[in-house]
Amino acid sequence: MATRQAAITMTTSDAFAPDPASPLSLRLLLLLTALAELVDSASSVPALFMDHSRIPGPSLGGAIILTAIALKPPLAVAAIGGALIKRMRLAVCALAGVSICTWFNYLPSVASYGLDLRYNWSNLQTFADAELVLPIALAAIFLALRTGRLNWAVALACLPTAIRLAGLIAFFMAVSIHGF
Hints:
- This protein has about 180 residues and is mainly α.
- It has one domain.
- About 75% of the residues lie in helices and about 0% in strands.
- The protein is built from six helices and no strands.
- The protein has helices spanning about 1-10, 25-40, 60-85, 90-115, 120-145, 150-180.
- It is globular.
């Protein structure tokens, strides 16, 4: 009982302490997920330097999208660094931050055009990014910082990327079956 109580009452100074007993498999999972997010976010960075009239307006929605695009690469690099130096809680929080930026990226479009819930894969993907990513990311941050359940936090932090990768795999399978 004492160890459970100690795990729940973690102070903030302990939150980003090194985790020497972190399993290699969890670190590799975080590292690969963060690398996938870095590659994905790097493809959006040129949008920061082009004509912003293509992004949904120069209003608050456009600013939110540009801010999310600008924040994703440094957060992915922080997750990679955290996984490499065995600071698993830092890596989980940074990867969850990438997921929250993805949620913010979808927010202006969903607010402007609504959420289409017809049954097809792209709408399910949009629904997952617009509705499920934020609670999953917040739960991962809570589990990483306030409890001793780091394994669950890693799994939840990697889940949004796994959902996006499943969409990419489904797209490639559909193209290979039906053609482009």
